[in-house]
Structure formats: C-alpha cells, structure tokens
Amino acid sequence: MSFKDKVVLVTGGSRGIGRAIVTEFVENDATVIINYNSSEEKALALKEELLAKNKAGKIYTVKANVSDPDRVKELFAHIKEEIGQLDILVNNAGITRDKFLVLMNDTNWNDVIQTNLNSVYYCSKAALNLLAKNKRGTIINMSSTSALHPNAGQTNYAATKAAIIAFTKALAKEVAKSGITVNAIAPGFIETEMTSLTNEKIKAAWMDSIPMKRFGAPEEIAKTALFLASDGARYITGQHIVVDGGLTS
C-alpha cells in the first residue's frame, strides 16, 4: 500500500515501537514527522538511515515534550506552518515507573499519567483541526495488554493504558462524522529496549505465558498501525486491536 501525499506524526518515534512505526510509514511513501523529547541523536540517526534507503522520502525530526501542553501547541504550530498538513497521528510516547503502590510516590504516579495519558489528550485535541480540514484522518493510540491484564507493580501504567482505550472509544464517536477514525493498539510483550533490560528469569516466565512462545517484534505493531491508517480500515473505529501472541485469549 502507498501513503504518498500523506503526512504522519509519530510521538516517541525515535526508538522501540515508535521507530518501527516511523520506518514502516516511510517505506510506504509517507511524509513522516519523528517526534522525540530526549533522544535527539537516535532521531537524527534514524532519519539519516531511512533517507539513505528512501532517497525520495520526506522526514522531519521535531523535539517536543508531548507531556507539556505548551510544547504540544508549539509542535502543532510548527507542523501547520512548515508542512501545512497532517493526516495520521500516532500517539506512541510512553514511559514506565513500575513500583508496588505502597512504595510509589506522587512523582512516579504523575509522570506516567502525564506522559502516557495526558499527552494523548493534548496531541489528539491539537490534531483535530488539521485532520478535520481534510474531512478524513486517522488517530492511533498506543495502549497495552496491561490495560486488560495488568501486572502487579503497574497501577500507574495500567491505569493510563486502560484510560487510553476508553478515550479512544469516546473520541471515535465524537469525530466519526468528520471522517476521522480513532483506534488503539494493545501490544503484549514486545522485544524492545525496555524489555531487553528485564531479568532473564522474568522474561522466561513471561514467554511461558504466551501461547506462541515468543515475544512480538516492533515491526508487527508497526504493520498493525499501517493497516489501521489504510483505506482497508476506513470502517473500523473506536476499537482496540490486541497484538499479543494469544496472551489474553
């Protein structure tokens, strides 16, 4: 499929699942905006790598802390002025601050809420004017199987990912008449930098719980995002697509 003449913004796009999503859209002819906060070196390296392979591609890198509403306003003002168009928003930025609740402090809680959930609100709201102008658009929100089957020590993270699913369903109803679809992806255990730091015994226990007996690849989540943004998914909205190797089946 081709996304020629489509502009995609991926928040948290410099590494992990975000990097894979950026790569997938670039390889399918989209103009892609890589948003990052602290990973400038990785964002620029990804841009160079993709342009070397896709010489006709258009890739922008934009630093913005999407948990800060003022920075989000600046980000979307920049998109409007420099590009003048947005067709697809992928709300991917996220963090973890795992702790049992009795050990969790307010900063652990609030940082995760602000980055994982409030950024989705800020970016989705800011994107609506640009998307509505086209009378067609796509918002894809990154949830998690933690929203459905949370782990101990993830009250903050699980709360944000469950809220994202509810947010997705409500917003989908609000904007359907404007030709905008809103869906969420709920990945299971995906092989990323985050999971690579996990203790091997814990990883083995996780894998044993997955019917397919393997972790997912970031590229598998990226292909799901690509489908949800495609013409083949125009009648799908308000849904969460679970990609977990059968974990929650």
Automatic annotation (TrEMBL):
Single GO term (MF): 3-oxoacyl-[acyl-carrier-protein] reductase (NADPH) activity
Enzyme class, top EC level, equals oxidoreductase
Q: What is its EC number?
A: 1.1.1.100
Q: Which residues form a coiled coil?
A: none
What pathway does the UniProt record associate with this protein? Lipid metabolism; fatty acid biosynthesis
Residues the record marks as active site: Y157 (proton acceptor)
Keyword set includes NADP: yes
How it assembles, according to the record, is: Homotetramer.
| PANTHER family (UniProt xref) | 3-OXOACYL-(ACYL-CARRIER-PROTEIN) REDUCTASE, 3-OXOACYL-[ACYL-CARRIER-PROTEIN] REDUCTASE FABG
The name this protein carries in UniProt is 3-oxoacyl-[acyl-carrier-protein] reductase
